[in-house]
Specification:
With 393 residues, this protein is α+β, with helices and mostly antiparallel strands. It has twelve helices and seven strands. Bound molecules: guanosine-5'-triphosphate.
Length: 393
């Protein structure tokens, strides 16, 4: 069996052309992630690279070799940078100068050097360029999107195939007298290396889709500004946790928290600083909660805090800590000015057998909050719900 190299080149060229075109079209729509942009240009690098390799029947060989390799080199580089951005990790430390040395030296190899030596060397250079990307995905992207795992594995196969191709070219120079000459060893490794690069090409697009879908799911239940759960999720969670408290015989505390005179903060320091204050407040409060507690943004500068299995002294202690911490918090405006804020809270402690609905708990917490505002703000007011008296026989 032989694998016809010109046909293989044509197949790769058309495959990358399709990928590049589809990515260009997709990016005009909702898929605007910058790393997908890098991937798109990387794919076009492969289109041009394979195009120049195939065009050697029309253009001088040295032009085909130089430009073909330059574009493939750029394509691989853009793929690896896109992977690094995708996993949001710094570059791994390591002997990077080796990769760059290899990359720089590749232009010299375009000259009058036997094809087998050039093939061996370039295959190793390309494998070396792929390895940081493989490392980043396998080390830091493994727990994320399932499609990214497939990208890491296919790139690892590509790197391995390129190393094998380098070794094969070195040990069988007679099979590498012409790039377009078909031989089994040359064909198989070429096929394996570039098909796995292509698999990674499509895999990365799927991983980007996967991430966008996860983000959409998160946004459906969370507030984009503060990363707290949103109003409707808080409603559901409160009803669920009240029911659980009832079953388990434990009290549930619920507090409404409202930043004081927030309108003045917006008016004095600007809406952006107001947003920064909301983010700082939410982050500070979240940092004080147990994993089972829930902080929801009910709207504007109003938050709902659900504390399962928490009695009145425990809830009061936490709310008082929050009140003091918020009063000590400093937020910096973009012009360098700093400002502070205070918060008022209305607490309801629901005994396990109170039989109260979530709506009623909201109303009572709201009432306690109103009392806190009325009594001068920057304070916590509480409302205790006692167990329902046993029904008379
Ligand atoms: N920056 C920013 N401001 C918001 C956001 N949502 C609501 N606000 C502002 O929050 C302010 C709420 O004002 P009010 O309801 O009068 O309450 P307040 O000024 O905090 O007064 P008290 O609650 O009585 O202490 C309004 O000016 C809203 O525009 C937001 O997402 N970002």
């Amino acid at each position: 069996m032989t694998i016809d190299i010109p046909t293989l080149l044509l197949a790769l060229l058309s495959g990358y052309l399709m990928l590049g075109l589809q990515l260009l079209v997709a990016r005009r729509g909702a898929l605007r992630q910058p790393e997908l942009g890098l991937w798109t240009w990387g794919s076009w690098g492969f289109v041009l690279g394979f195009g120049f390799f195939g065009a050697r029947v029309l253009i001088p060989t040295w032009v085909s070799v130089l430009l073909g390799n330059a574009f493939i080199f750029g394509g691989i580089l853009l793929y690896v940078i896109a992977l690094q951005r995708f996993v949001r990790r710094p570059w791994p430390s390591g002997p990077y100068w080796l990769v760059w040395l290899a990359a720089v030296s590749f232009t010299g190899l375009m000259l009058e050097i036997p094809l087998s030596v050039r093939t061996a060397w370039l295959s190793l250079v390309y494998a070396g360029l792929l390895l940081p990307g493989v490392y980043l995905v396998l080390r830091h992207g493994w727990g994320g999107e399932a499609s990214l795992r497939a990208v890491g594995l296919t790139l690892a196969v590509a790197a391995l195939a390129l190393i094998l191709r380098g070794w094969h070219a070195f040990t069988h120079p007679d099979q590498y007298t012409d790039l377009l000459r078909s031989s089994l060893g040359q064909g198989l490794t070429f096929l394996c290396a570039f098909l796995s690069l292509m698999g990674a090409g499509f895999g990365f697009v799927l991983a980007s889709f996967e991430r966008a879908a996860t983000e959409m799911k998160r946004l459906a239940s969370h507030d984009g500004l503060t990363a707290c759960v949103n109003r409707s999720s808080t409603d559901d969670l409160l009803a669920h946790l009240l029911e659980r408290g009832r079953r388990e015989g434990s009290p549930v505390s619920f507090a409404m928290l409202d930043l004081d005179h927030f309108k003045q903060i917006n008016d004095r320091y600007g809406h952006q600083s107001g947003d920064a204050a909301l983010r700082a407040f939410a982050a500070d409060v979240r940092g004080r909660l147990r994993a089972s507690d829930v902080l929801g943004r009910m709207g504007g500068e109003e938050f709902g805090l659900i504390l399962p299995a928490t009695d009145e002294p425990g809830a009061m202690r936490l709310l008082e800590q929050i009140r003091q911490a918020v009063a000590a918090l400093k937020v910096r405006c973009h012009d360098g000015r700093e400002f502070g804020m205070t918060v008022s809270a209305g607490l309801v402690v629901v005994a396990s057998d109170s039989g109260l609905s979530a709506d009623r708990v909201y109303a009572l917490a709201d009432k306690a909050l109103y009392q806190a505002k009325h009594a001068g703000r920057n304070r916590v007011e509480r409302h205790l719900i006692m167990p329902m008296p046993a029904a008379a026989d």
